[in-house]
Amino acid sequence: MLTLSDKKEIPGYLKTFSRQMRKNMTKEERHLWFDFFRSYPVRVKRQVIIGKYIVDFCCERAQVIIELDGGQHYEVENKKNDAERTRHLERLGFLVLRYSNLDVMRNFSGVTEYIDRVIRERMQKLGTG
Asked: pLDDT per position in the chain (129 positions), as tens?
């Protein structure tokens, strides 16, 4: 099972940016964190550094990353960047789930039920559950 980077190897600017992002989460990230992940029975971290990327949420045991996309993610260049980022993370063994901010606000229970099911299935498959 892949583990996240050794903290000593992470550049200082990424650590600083990750901390800032945890302090300044979007409304949708806060909703998912405080109303679901914070008390979730399997540890999920927020604003996690993986290589040169900072992902919104990561369940290391299940090798699942959850990304929330605001409107800027639907611009052509950003869609290309997100696709490359997803390919890179998948090559590392992660499953990347992407949701729009609108999904989180309009269908919170559907989003969280699906995430829960995927995490549980992945942990069983990986033998970490």
From this structure: 444 544 557 667 677 757 777 787 899 999 999 999 999 999 999 999 888 888 999 999 999 999 998 756 456 776 788 899 999 999 999 999 999 999 999 999 999 999 999 999 999 999 987
Q: How close are the terminal C-alpha atoms of the chain, in Å?
A: 13
Give 29-126's CATH code, choosing from 3.20.20.70, 3.40.960.10, 3.40.50.12780, 1.10.357.140: 3.40.960.10
Who's near 51: CB < 8 A, 6+ residues apart? 5, 88, 92
What the block records as the tokens of 59 is 């369940």
Distances (CA, A) of 31 to 21, 22, 35: 15, 13, 6
